[in-house]
Amino acid sequence: MSKLNSRDKFFDLSDYGRSAGKLFANQISHTRITPIHVTLLFGLSGLTAIYCIIQGSYWWASFFIILKSIIDAADGELARINQTPSYTGRYLDSIFDIILNFMIFTTIAIVTKTSFLYAFIAFFAVQLQGTLYNYYYVILRNKSEGGDTTSKIFEYKAPRALPGESQQSVTILFSIYYLVYGFFDKIIHVLDPDAYKVKTFPSWFMTMLSIYGLGFQLLIIAVMLPFNLIQYIVPFFIIFSFFILVLIGIRRILLR
What we know:
- The protein is mainly alpha-helical.
- The protein has one domain (18-254): CDP-alcohol phosphotransferase transmembrane (TM) domain (Four Helix Bundle (Hemerythrin (Met), subunit A), Up-down Bundle).
- 68% of the residues lie in helices and 0% in strands.
- The protein has helices spanning 18-28, 35-55, 58-81, 87-112, 116-143, 167-191, 203-209, 214-224, 233-240, 243-254.
- Helix 2 packs antiparallel against helix 3 (58-81) and helix 4 (87-112) crosses helix 6.
- The two termini are 28 Å apart.
- The mean pLDDT is 93.
Protein backbone atom coordinates (compact mmCIF):
# COMPACT_ATOMS: atom_id res chain seq x y z
CA MET A 1 0.00 0.00 0.00
CA SER A 2 1.39 3.41 -0.98
CA LYS A 3 1.21 6.34 1.39
CA LEU A 4 -0.67 8.33 -1.29
CA ASN A 5 -2.74 7.52 -4.32
CA SER A 6 -1.33 8.45 -7.73
CA ARG A 7 -3.37 11.67 -7.94
CA ASP A 8 -1.88 13.09 -4.74
CA LYS A 9 1.73 12.04 -5.18
CA PHE A 10 4.37 14.76 -5.38
CA PHE A 11 8.13 15.09 -5.83
CA ASP A 12 9.39 14.78 -2.27
CA LEU A 13 12.85 16.31 -1.87
CA SER A 14 13.29 14.58 1.47
CA ASP A 15 12.45 11.11 0.16
CA TYR A 16 15.55 10.51 -2.00
CA GLY A 17 16.27 7.29 -0.13
CA ARG A 18 12.93 5.69 -1.04
CA SER A 19 14.04 3.78 -4.15
CA ALA A 20 17.09 2.27 -2.45
CA GLY A 21 15.05 1.64 0.69
CA LYS A 22 12.37 -0.15 -1.31
CA LEU A 23 15.01 -2.28 -3.05
CA PHE A 24 16.50 -3.22 0.33
CA ALA A 25 13.04 -4.00 1.73
CA ASN A 26 12.25 -6.27 -1.22
CA GLN A 27 15.50 -8.16 -0.71
CA ILE A 28 14.72 -8.94 2.93
CA SER A 29 10.94 -9.31 2.66
CA HIS A 30 11.08 -13.12 2.72
CA THR A 31 13.48 -13.34 5.65
CA ARG A 32 12.98 -13.21 9.40
CA ILE A 33 14.03 -9.56 9.46
CA THR A 34 11.16 -7.38 10.65
CA PRO A 35 10.53 -3.65 10.22
CA ILE A 36 11.55 -3.19 13.87
CA HIS A 37 14.93 -4.76 13.10
CA VAL A 38 15.36 -2.30 10.23
CA THR A 39 14.42 0.60 12.51
CA LEU A 40 17.12 -0.50 14.96
CA LEU A 41 19.56 -0.66 12.04
CA PHE A 42 18.90 2.95 11.00
CA GLY A 43 19.43 3.96 14.61
CA LEU A 44 22.82 2.23 14.52
CA SER A 45 23.69 4.02 11.28
CA GLY A 46 22.81 7.35 12.89
CA LEU A 47 24.98 6.60 15.93
CA THR A 48 27.86 5.65 13.63
CA ALA A 49 27.50 8.99 11.84
CA ILE A 50 27.68 10.79 15.19
CA TYR A 51 30.83 8.86 16.12
CA CYS A 52 32.39 9.86 12.78
CA ILE A 53 31.61 13.52 13.48
CA ILE A 54 33.37 13.27 16.84
CA GLN A 55 36.38 11.69 15.12
CA GLY A 56 36.42 14.39 12.42
CA SER A 57 35.70 11.85 9.67
CA TYR A 58 33.15 14.05 7.94
CA TRP A 59 32.99 12.14 4.65
CA TRP A 60 32.17 8.95 6.53
CA ALA A 61 29.69 10.85 8.69
CA SER A 62 27.94 12.01 5.53
CA PHE A 63 27.88 8.45 4.19
CA PHE A 64 26.20 7.09 7.32
CA ILE A 65 23.74 10.01 7.46
CA ILE A 66 22.63 9.23 3.90
CA LEU A 67 22.58 5.51 4.70
CA LYS A 68 20.40 6.26 7.72
CA SER A 69 17.88 8.02 5.44
CA ILE A 70 17.80 5.04 3.09
CA ILE A 71 17.29 2.53 5.89
CA ASP A 72 14.71 4.84 7.45
CA ALA A 73 12.65 4.49 4.28
CA ALA A 74 13.12 0.72 4.24
CA ASP A 75 11.34 -0.10 7.50
CA GLY A 76 8.05 1.40 6.35
CA GLU A 77 8.43 -0.18 2.92
CA LEU A 78 9.01 -3.59 4.49
CA ALA A 79 5.88 -3.17 6.62
CA ARG A 80 3.85 -2.32 3.52
CA ILE A 81 5.31 -5.19 1.45
CA ASN A 82 4.57 -7.71 4.19
CA GLN A 83 1.27 -5.99 5.01
CA THR A 84 2.26 -5.67 8.66
CA PRO A 85 1.67 -2.02 9.58
CA SER A 86 2.19 -1.27 13.25
CA TYR A 87 1.98 1.63 15.64
CA THR A 88 4.95 0.16 17.49
CA GLY A 89 7.17 0.67 14.45
CA ARG A 90 5.75 4.10 13.70
CA TYR A 91 6.35 5.49 17.19
CA LEU A 92 9.72 3.79 17.62
CA ASP A 93 10.86 5.27 14.29
CA SER A 94 9.86 8.79 15.36
CA ILE A 95 11.41 8.44 18.83
CA PHE A 96 14.71 7.31 17.32
CA ASP A 97 14.62 10.26 14.92
CA ILE A 98 14.28 12.91 17.62
CA ILE A 99 16.94 11.27 19.82
CA LEU A 100 19.40 11.11 16.93
CA ASN A 101 18.64 14.72 15.93
CA PHE A 102 19.32 15.88 19.49
CA MET A 103 22.56 13.89 19.60
CA ILE A 104 23.72 15.25 16.24
CA PHE A 105 23.28 18.87 17.30
CA THR A 106 24.82 18.20 20.71
CA THR A 107 27.81 16.60 18.99
CA ILE A 108 28.15 19.53 16.60
CA ALA A 109 28.11 21.89 19.61
CA ILE A 110 30.91 19.91 21.25
CA VAL A 111 33.05 19.70 18.12
CA THR A 112 32.63 23.38 17.18
CA LYS A 113 32.65 24.63 20.80
CA THR A 114 29.25 26.21 20.21
CA SER A 115 26.96 27.16 23.09
CA PHE A 116 24.68 24.25 24.00
CA LEU A 117 21.80 26.72 24.26
CA TYR A 118 22.49 27.87 20.69
CA ALA A 119 22.62 24.24 19.52
CA PHE A 120 19.39 23.45 21.37
CA ILE A 121 17.65 26.35 19.60
CA ALA A 122 18.79 24.86 16.27
CA PHE A 123 17.54 21.43 17.34
CA PHE A 124 14.22 22.97 18.37
CA ALA A 125 14.01 24.76 15.01
CA VAL A 126 14.68 21.51 13.12
CA GLN A 127 11.94 19.70 15.04
CA LEU A 128 9.47 22.51 14.39
CA GLN A 129 10.31 22.44 10.69
CA GLY A 130 9.80 18.69 10.57
CA THR A 131 6.53 18.97 12.47
CA LEU A 132 5.14 21.41 9.90
CA TYR A 133 6.07 19.00 7.10
CA ASN A 134 4.53 16.03 8.91
CA TYR A 135 1.39 18.00 9.82
CA TYR A 136 0.51 18.85 6.21
CA TYR A 137 1.74 15.50 4.89
CA VAL A 138 -0.38 13.51 7.34
CA ILE A 139 -3.41 15.63 6.47
CA LEU A 140 -2.83 14.83 2.79
CA ARG A 141 -2.34 11.12 3.50
CA ASN A 142 -5.54 10.89 5.53
CA LYS A 143 -7.53 12.65 2.80
CA SER A 144 -5.94 10.71 -0.05
CA GLU A 145 -8.21 7.85 -1.13
CA GLY A 146 -6.49 4.60 -0.24
CA GLY A 147 -3.64 6.44 1.49
CA ASP A 148 -1.79 5.38 4.62
CA THR A 149 -3.75 6.35 7.75
CA THR A 150 -1.43 4.84 10.37
CA SER A 151 -0.47 8.42 11.28
CA LYS A 152 -3.29 10.60 12.56
CA ILE A 153 -3.72 14.37 12.18
CA PHE A 154 -4.43 14.85 15.87
CA GLU A 155 -2.95 12.32 18.30
CA TYR A 156 -3.88 12.75 21.94
CA LYS A 157 -4.28 9.17 23.13
CA ALA A 158 -2.79 5.80 22.36
CA PRO A 159 -4.48 4.04 19.43
CA ARG A 160 -5.74 0.48 19.57
CA ALA A 161 -2.95 -1.94 18.74
CA LEU A 162 -3.00 -3.49 15.29
CA PRO A 163 -2.92 -7.29 14.82
CA GLY A 164 0.43 -8.76 15.79
CA GLU A 165 1.51 -6.06 18.24
CA SER A 166 1.09 -5.57 21.99
CA GLN A 167 -1.29 -2.91 23.28
CA GLN A 168 1.08 -2.30 26.18
CA SER A 169 3.98 -1.60 23.81
CA VAL A 170 1.83 0.75 21.74
CA THR A 171 0.66 2.62 24.84
CA ILE A 172 4.17 3.01 26.26
CA LEU A 173 5.69 4.12 22.97
CA PHE A 174 2.83 6.53 22.31
CA SER A 175 3.37 8.09 25.76
CA ILE A 176 7.03 8.67 24.95
CA TYR A 177 6.15 9.93 21.47
CA TYR A 178 3.60 12.38 22.84
CA LEU A 179 6.05 13.57 25.50
CA VAL A 180 8.76 14.48 22.97
CA TYR A 181 6.59 15.59 20.04
CA GLY A 182 3.38 16.89 21.61
CA PHE A 183 4.69 20.40 22.28
CA PHE A 184 5.87 20.84 18.67
CA ASP A 185 2.50 19.56 17.40
CA LYS A 186 0.64 22.09 19.54
CA ILE A 187 2.73 24.99 18.24
CA ILE A 188 2.03 24.10 14.60
CA HIS A 189 -1.67 23.49 15.29
CA VAL A 190 -1.90 26.95 16.88
CA LEU A 191 -0.15 28.54 13.89
CA ASP A 192 -2.45 26.83 11.37
CA PRO A 193 -5.47 25.29 13.13
CA ASP A 194 -7.66 25.06 10.01
CA ALA A 195 -5.25 23.22 7.71
CA TYR A 196 -7.12 19.93 8.17
CA LYS A 197 -10.20 21.48 6.53
CA VAL A 198 -8.43 21.74 3.17
CA LYS A 199 -9.52 19.01 0.73
CA THR A 200 -6.02 18.48 -0.64
CA PHE A 201 -2.67 20.19 -1.14
CA PRO A 202 -1.28 20.71 -4.67
CA SER A 203 1.93 18.92 -5.59
CA TRP A 204 3.92 22.15 -6.00
CA PHE A 205 3.14 23.14 -2.41
CA MET A 206 4.06 19.72 -1.01
CA THR A 207 7.33 19.71 -2.96
CA MET A 208 8.16 23.15 -1.56
CA LEU A 209 7.23 21.94 1.91
CA SER A 210 9.47 18.88 1.61
CA ILE A 211 12.57 21.04 2.26
CA TYR A 212 11.50 20.56 5.88
CA GLY A 213 11.34 16.77 5.64
CA LEU A 214 13.88 15.00 7.84
CA GLY A 215 15.59 13.41 4.86
CA PHE A 216 16.30 16.80 3.27
CA GLN A 217 17.43 18.28 6.59
CA LEU A 218 19.90 15.43 7.00
CA LEU A 219 21.01 15.83 3.38
CA ILE A 220 21.91 19.48 4.09
CA ILE A 221 24.02 18.37 7.06
CA ALA A 222 25.59 15.60 4.96
CA VAL A 223 26.60 18.16 2.31
CA MET A 224 27.92 20.76 4.76
CA LEU A 225 30.10 18.36 6.77
CA PRO A 226 32.69 17.26 4.15
CA PHE A 227 33.06 20.87 2.98
CA ASN A 228 34.15 21.83 6.49
CA LEU A 229 31.05 23.96 7.05
CA ILE A 230 30.21 22.28 10.35
CA GLN A 231 30.40 25.58 12.24
CA TYR A 232 27.60 26.96 10.04
CA ILE A 233 25.14 24.09 10.57
CA VAL A 234 23.64 25.45 13.79
CA PRO A 235 23.06 29.04 12.53
CA PHE A 236 21.81 27.74 9.18
CA PHE A 237 18.96 25.74 10.67
CA ILE A 238 17.95 28.57 12.96
CA ILE A 239 17.65 30.93 9.98
CA PHE A 240 16.06 28.17 7.87
CA SER A 241 13.15 28.00 10.31
CA PHE A 242 11.89 31.46 9.32
CA PHE A 243 10.40 29.89 6.18
CA ILE A 244 7.86 28.21 8.47
CA LEU A 245 5.86 31.43 8.52
CA VAL A 246 6.19 31.77 4.74
CA LEU A 247 4.82 28.28 4.10
CA ILE A 248 1.98 28.71 6.58
CA GLY A 249 1.18 32.05 4.98
CA ILE A 250 1.00 30.44 1.53
CA ARG A 251 -1.30 27.74 2.88
CA ARG A 252 -3.63 30.16 4.64
CA ILE A 253 -3.85 32.64 1.76
CA LEU A 254 -3.79 30.44 -1.35
CA LEU A 255 -4.94 26.99 -0.20
CA ARG A 256 -8.29 27.18 1.55
